[in-house]
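Lab meeting notes turned into a lecture example. A postdoc, R.K., suggested we walk through two folding results consecutively so the class can see how the record format repeats. The first protein's sequence and C-alpha cells come next.
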Amino acid sequence: MKLDLNLLRVLVAIHESGSVTKAAQQLGMSQPAVSAALGRLRESLADPLFIRQADGMLPTPRADTLAGKARQVLDAIDHDILRPPEFDPQADDVEFVFCLSAIGEIVFLPTLLRHIREQAPRALVKSVSLAPEQLEEALGCGEVDLALGYFPDLKKAEFFQRRLFSHDFVCMVRSGHRIKGPRMTLNQFATTEQVFVKDGSRTQERVEAALAQKAVKRNVVLQTSHYLSIPIVIAESDLVVVLPRTVADVFSDLMDVRVVEPPVEIPRYDLKVYWHRRFGQDPKVKWLRERVIGIFAEQA
C-alpha cells in the first residue's frame, strides 16, 4: 500500500488539535482539503481514525498508534532529510584543498590563506599541482575542492566555472638593463637572451602563439620548470623573461627588477574558479567557492 506522506501530516495535525478546522489552520490548508485528506486516510487504512464528538475529534486506537509513529517519521524527514546540511568553518577537522599552478600559488595563495584563516582559523589549507586528467578525477571524487587559475582542459559538462579576473603578459629585466624604455622593440626582444619558464601550465601557449603570428623567435638560453628562481636569475643577469603581469609585479617588489611591455600584443586570458557539479551544493565547497569569488572577482 502506497501512502502519501502529506497525509501523515494531516493525521498528526488532527490528532494534536482534535479538530479538522484547527488542523487546516495549522497546515495552511482549507478545511475541505483536510477533510478530503482524512477521507483518503480512512479509505487507505480501513479505519475511521477519528470519531466526531461535540468537543472535537476523538482518535481511535489505530489513530493513536499511527500518530506516534508518524511524528517520529516526520521529525526524521524534517530534521535529517529536508533540513539543509550545515558547514562549520571553525571545526577542528576542516580541510580545504586547491589545485593551483606555480603562477596560481603566487597570485592566489597569500591572499586566500589570509582570508580563510580569518574565518576558519583551525582549517588546514592544501595546495596541489595536478595534470589535467588527474585534476578531473580529483575534483570528481572530492580530493580537490576547487581549481583556481587557467585550466582550459576542464571542458566537460560536469565541470562548472566562474571567471574571476584576467591576466596579461609583460617582460621583466633587471633594473640596470640596457633596455631602458617602457616597451621593448621587436629587435630587442629577438636579440636579447631569454629565460623560458615551462612549468606545465597552458599559459605560455598564448605567448608562443602571439609570437608565431608575428614570426618572432626567442633567443632562449635558459629553460626552467618553475618561477621560483626567476627573480634572482633576472636580477643577476641581462636575460629577459615573459610572464604574467601580476607575477612580475610581485617579483618587482622583492628584487631589483622592472617590468617592460612586450613588443607584440599577447592576448589576455581569464583566471577562473572550477568545481565539479557533484559538489555544487556541498556545504563546504559552496562556502569556499563563495569566499573565493568574493575575494577575487572584485578584480575583474
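The second example is placed directly after the first for contrast:
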Amino acid sequence: MSEQSVTRATFNEVMLPNYAPLEMIPVRAQGSHVWDQAGREYIDFSGGIAVNCLGHCHPDLVAAIQEQSQKLWHVSNIWTNEPALELAQRLVNATFADKVFFCNSGAEANEAALKLARRYAVDNYGEDKDQIIAFKQSFHGRTLFTVTAGGQTSYSDGFGPKPGAIDHAIYNDLESLEALISDKTCAVIMEPMLGEGGVTPATKAFIEGVRALCDKYNALLIFDEVQTGFGRTGYLYMYQAYGVVPDILSTAKSLGGGFPIGGILTTDEIGKHLKFGTHGTTYGGNPLACAVANAAFDIINTDAVLSGIEQREQMFREHLQGINDKYQVFSEIRGQGLLLGAVVNEAHQGQAREFMAAAMEQGLMCLVAGADVVRFAPALVIDPQDIAEGFARFEKAVARVVAAD
C-alpha cells in the first residue's frame, strides 16, 4: 500500500471517531522538520506531545533500534533482558529510586503507581486507608482508574461506575488539600506542572506543603512526571528542580524518544509491596523499547543537553514576548524548560485551537492545553535556527487570527 492510497478521509471510514486529526498526514520527518503526503515541510514545536525529546529519527536512536532489532525483540516478563536491566540501572543511579517497573505508556505507569499505593496502604494500615487525592484540571491517563484520578470529568463521565475513594483538591491551593486529607488517605497524586490542564507549574511552597501533609498522614506522594520528566524542564526529572522527593514517580513520553515505554520509580521499602504476581504487563520492558530509551538516556542526561534546554527556553520566551508586544494576544507565558504555554488574553478567550490551526497553515506544528493555552513541547535539542524560523511562521499565524477578528 503506497502512502498516497490513504487520505484523511480514510480515517473517517476505518477508525473509531474518538480522535479528530487535522487534515495533514505526516509521512517523513528528520530532526524538527516534518513532511506531509504532498511534500510540504513543517517545523515541529509539538514534539508528539512532549514525546520526541530528540526530534525525529535521531541517528543514535535509529542505530539503537536497528541494532536491537537484529538481536531480540520480545521475550515477555517470564524472562528479563539486558536492555531493560541497563535502563533500570541508569534510572536508579540518576534518581531517588531503588527499584523500577516498566510498562508501555503513561496511563499504565500511573495505573501501576496507584495500585502500588493502595497495596502499600492495605499491607501497612488496613483496607480503610484507601483515599486517593488528585487535583482538578490534572491528567493522568485514559484507563478508568487514571481518568477518574484525572481532574476533568469530561474525560471520565459516561462510562458507568467509577473507581471509588478518589477526591480532588485545587492545584496550588494547599488549604483545599488540607480540607480533604486525613488518616484515610493512602496517596496524593500530582503533576509537578499541569500539562493538559494548562501548563501550570506548582509553586515551591505548594509542593513542599503537599510533601509535608503526606508525611503527616502517612500518605504516599506520587509525582506524575509523564510529561515533565526525562529532561523536559531542564532537569532529568522535575522533582529535582524543587528539591522535593516523591515516594513514587511515573515516567513515559520522552523516556523512549518516540518509542512507546513507561515506568514507575520507587524505593525498596515501598516497592516490595508489589510482590510476585500482584501486577504485570506483557510488553513492558521489552528489549526494543529499552534499547531506544538507553540511547536517549545517554544523550539527555548530560550537562550539555540539560543546560541547553534553559537556553532554548529563553529563546522561546523572547520570541513569544516579541510577538505579543506587537499583537497583544497573550496574557502570560508560563511553564518551565521546553514545556511552555502561551495563555490567550480575554480578547481571544477560547481561541487557542484557532491559533494552532493558523500555525499549521503557516507550516508550524504546535499544541493546545485547553481552550485558552497554546502549548509548545519541541525537541530538547531543537536547532536555534529552527526556533527562529518556527516563530516567524507563528507570527504570521497570529497576524492571521488577529486580522480575522
